[in-house]
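Session log. Operator J.P. requested a structure for one protein chain; no other inputs attached. Running the standard single-chain path with token output.
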Amino acid sequence: MPRSNRPRGRKPSQDEDEALDLSRATQGWRRTEVRRGFAWNVQPVSPVQAVKVYICPGCGLEIEPGVAHLVTWRADGLMGDAADIAARRHWHTHCWRIS
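Structure written below.
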């Protein structure tokens, strides 16, 4: 069988690595906000990432699949990070802003 001269399993170049890191960083950036004296982690969800139906705690209406929204959870909870993440909630962006 003839030998193949194509390299196998090549590593990405530095430019490709930087582009990949940038896309990961901007895909779902998270910020911390203070509301009513508590720190909250706020992560946007793009329309492409929104694939399930959620109930917004702000208005009580459904957040349909394909609708951009926010996921929030306590940043300073007493029960630890695992409990805070388990208690995260999906909000309409508008409802979060006016809450």
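Operator note: The CA atoms of residues 31 and 42 lie 5 Å apart.
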